Amino acid sequence: MESAITNSSSSLKGRGVNFSAPRSFFRKFGSKCKETFFPDDPFKPISQEPNGLMKTKKLLEYFVPIFEWLPKYNLQKLRYDVLAGITITSLAVPQGISYAKLASIPPIIGLYSSFVPPFVYAVFGSSNNLAVGTVAACSLLISETFGEEMSKKNPALYLHLIFTATFITGLFQFALGFLRLGMLVDFLSHSTITGFMGGTAIIILLQQLKGIFGLVHFTHKTDVVSVLHSVFSHRNEWKWQSALAGVCFLIFLQSTRYIKQRKPKLFWVSAMGPMVVVLVGCLVAYLVKGTEHGIQTVGPLKKGLNPPSIQYLNFEAKYLPMVIKAGIITGLIAMAEGIAIGRSFAVMKNEQTDGNKEMIAFGLMNIIGSFTSCYLTTGPFSKTAVNYNAGTKTPMSNVVMGICMMLVLLFLAPLFSYTPLVGLSAIIMSAMLGLIDYEEMYHLFKVDKFDFLVCMSAFLGVSFISMDYGLIISVGISVVRALLYVARPSACKLGRIPNSVMFRDIEQYSAAEDMLGYVILQLGSPIFFANSTYVRERILRWIRDEPEAVEFLLIDLSGVSSVDMTGMETLLEVQRILRSKGIKMVIINPRFEVLEKMMLSHFVEKIGKEYMFLSIDDAVQACRFNLSTAKPEP
Amino acid sequence: MESAITNSSSSLKGRGVNFSAPRSFFRKFGSKCKETFFPDDPFKPISQEPNGLMKTKKLLEYFVPIFEWLPKYNLQKLRYDVLAGITITSLAVPQGISYAKLASIPPIIGLYSSFVPPFVYAVFGSSNNLAVGTVAACSLLISETFGEEMSKKNPALYLHLIFTATFITGLFQFALGFLRLGMLVDFLSHSTITGFMGGTAIIILLQQLKGIFGLVHFTHKTDVVSVLHSVFSHRNEWKWQSALAGVCFLIFLQSTRYIKQRKPKLFWVSAMGPMVVVLVGCLVAYLVKGTEHGIQTVGPLKKGLNPPSIQYLNFEAKYLPMVIKAGIITGLIAMAEGIAIGRSFAVMKNEQTDGNKEMIAFGLMNIIGSFTSCYLTTGPFSKTAVNYNAGTKTPMSNVVMGICMMLVLLFLAPLFSYTPLVGLSAIIMSAMLGLIDYEEMYHLFKVDKFDFLVCMSAFLGVSFISMDYGLIISVGISVVRALLYVARPSACKLGRIPNSVMFRDIEQYSAAEDMLGYVILQLGSPIFFANSTYVRERILRWIRDEPEAVEFLLIDLSGVSSVDMTGMETLLEVQRILRSKGIKMVIINPRFEVLEKMMLSHFVEKIGKEYMFLSIDDAVQACRFNLSTAKPEP
């Protein structure tokens, strides 16, 4: 019963498991670190350069991408970039003013934020499509974190804390990029972002009811219930003129979007829309002397470029926790949005963006921004889409936008002070309507209920609780799912596909034949502390469920990428239990890391080398010689 | 270039991927839930019973194991169980008194705790080897959580809070068992427990220096630095008589352990050791009128059985957070120790224990215990080992111990009031010396550096910070590792093993031949949001690193147990990027769940059914017809 299986039949020569000596710890550790932090191996092309000068040049080009694209720049590209830069400027002005309003800071800060950061990004950024600017979700999140009361009570302190939060954001993003921890962004899954964007769009939309109805009193909370309650409890403040103007603007903006959707070539109609709304609004407000008739406008906008703000950074212990919280959460969201969007457009052009490099660029952009009166910037969806459609070729379009913004700040800023708030509300609403991705949500519901749950938890959490809780709940559910993946690895029973040497899941392939006397199992994912009890229970259940007597248990470890001490002991425990029942355990195709650990822990000796095979077919053939033939066939 | 691969050659008939309709959501969900919560499928044997009466009987036997083993009980088994029960009682008395001292509660509570809980376990417990009792680590952890000051200032309140914490522990353990969340215990890995036990042993050993040196003043902290500082700063209190007695006791106890190690049949020598120390100590203290000469003794022990304590449970809001924290942390540790130990001994006898059933038994034991003046009990290592060695056959040995403890409480308790504290310290020290598993730590260091790190973080964390922080740090590191497993799944490049249809890792098998024009990759573990960026980067790097032009990328998904929306989009993105480079992507052997999702999300249509194969060999053969032959062989 206990005799070893003969594994040395001549047909199997050279096909056995490779039991050569395990690699040293440092080699393994080095290769693990490289896989973890440098999956794209960025320095390989650099190290292949023949001489030191070229190496330095390549290294500089790697860290400061402008050195890579500027020498190849030509007039042909400039033509496209100038066009794209002017187009996105026409979007940047109204968006800058609107989103600054969302963040409860002076509108001029929104314009400042579209001047300095684009230059920084043009130097360090690696995406050719990204257009730099402020984003609605983060703007609202900032004001939610600090509380709108503070913005009313002490606007100067509030503004300084926002600069400080921007500085923290920049530092955080830079550090993540430098330490190559881009993988943290990966934990914000596509489903989480879809739900978060949708939920944010809903609450920002509702916030705009204040501007549309011309309300004076309004709640500080952002959740759907409070906002709707606030709107309906102040019915006496509703102004029909304002609402009418708002609806007209909204219809106009939505029609320009519709035109773009029908004829993508007319993208500039939609891009110019917000600017038209602002100009028309200013003109009307100026002509009818709107401020005297109760039309709320943006208010004074000073001429002049960004004043320095480095002296305002406030690291008082009292505010620090709040500042750090705001900085890190908004930094993470802004980064996830910027990287995801940069990547999606790059894919369409078959270009590559480097997540870690982008983080460094975003980080520098926000650090320098926080010194020059800017608040949080990243690569917003709407602007980037317009930039892409306008045919941008390099980050030069950001430089063009920066120059245009400079001209606006130096000469035109006061003009925009007449912009009616209702126009800004209509611009924001129109932008938000495009962010609720119904189709994607429906798609998630059809294909993956768990992803739909993750998406909905973000969507409903943001809508009904608050933005940060919605995000945390959604990410929490995703991480639990990730842990469940490892705690309950899929395993399946294999059968032979007729007339072949293939063994496949018998649940999936009904043609696969169960083999009498054998139980062949395929395990997936690592075997380690979190799932070893499960693996043991599951294997023993398969043996128990087998109607006929089992002689061999074959475990295919091809899918097991690693194993820890607990996992190893579990396999030994299974072997001991099986041996007492007269069943032999055979290991198939252990992978490199797994085999190394099996050898180091003397697992191989305990199981026996002759019970380890490179393929299921080899094992079945070798076992067949030993299968007891006393048992009659059914 | 874009023509499809012909997959319909007659030799491949019936060997293609099975594209039949996906399962319904509810079927998938049901099977997932079953795998998650009932991996051992406990109700299957019950549902197979023919009639209702038998079903009820089986169900009762399942939930209350005593109904299963008591009807088969006989005198032969009783003989062993009585012997084992008496042996563990001789250990229970000194351990009960000692560990109650560690928890800063009256010693009689320790004796009470060995009376009621064993009866409860005998009814509901499923392990034949487990002996119920108090444990050193949890006893110290309780006093650490509540703070020793409270035990001095208001001993009655302190005791009531400990009963309440025991009740919470019981409730928590019962709930986990009932909800089948036994997997939570799995997150305390073997390495964490080894380190935690070792660290606890160190700090408990050092605590005993108080008793050994007969100190009166001592620190309330448990970390190594504070305790050693306290011992050496009170040198004036050191009593050489006490130290001498302590060392003698310790040498005696260690010799009995040594005897047991050399001759396992003499296990009772070691089991009786602590009782001998107590009796000798009592005798000496009584004869020399020790209390008058400054020998510290246990103090008055009243005759009589456990008084009810249900009326003392204290749920005041002021103490509740502390009580819940103590209850849950000690509950988790006690459970992990009890289940792990029960299981290790069961494996030696080829028996099975059911983790979830054990949790329910522990839970009931602690709930009823908290009503009857007992504190936290579980299955401690030392007692269980003695029970096993004494040849116990069923949980009846716990009943015998309970009866013996009853006799002790009714008639002998006052005798033990003379026990000198130095004797108890020696008993605890001797027990702790056995809990530091140097060999296991060295083994971890040799085999798995990461497991060693996890172990050491618990060991050093407990020794130098505190027990709960040590545990949290160690579990935190383990979870990060689990997340890294999923965030950085091992992937490898395959080559053909000569003269076979097997494809294996070329790094592992140097004989495996790289195939010109093909890149064959094997992915492990699920592809989902946390690792999709990595997977994309890694695949593109392999393509980039290939010296020759690549025409086909074959991705073997055998090891990929599931995929989410982000993962699916990543695969599509890779395909789009490759297509622009003229490389075709081929999918090999998608598993059941993965294929279902691929079909639901129309991935299959986007990739093309003709690009999906059941084995690498089939794919290579089919691709060969399409491989451009214009390129000259090197």
Automatic annotation (TrEMBL), chains A, B:
Localization of this protein: Membrane
Residue intervals passing through the bilayer: 80-99, 119-143, 155-175, 187-206, 266-288, 322-347, 359-378, 398-416, 421-438, 458-486
First-listed, main subcellular location of the protein, grouped into a coarse class: membrane
UniProt keyword list: Membrane, Sulfate transport, Symport, Transmembrane, Transmembrane helix, Transport
Keyword Cell wall biogenesis/degradation listed: no
Entry-linked InterPro entries: S04_transporter_CS, SLC26A/SulP_dom, SLC26A/SulP_fam, STAS_dom, STAS_dom_sf
Lineage: superkingdom: Eukaryota
STAS domain residues: 508-623
GO function terms (MF aspect): symporter activity
PANTHER family: SULFATE TRANSPORTER
Protein name: Sulfate transporter 3.5
Organism this protein belongs to: Cardamine amara subsp. amara
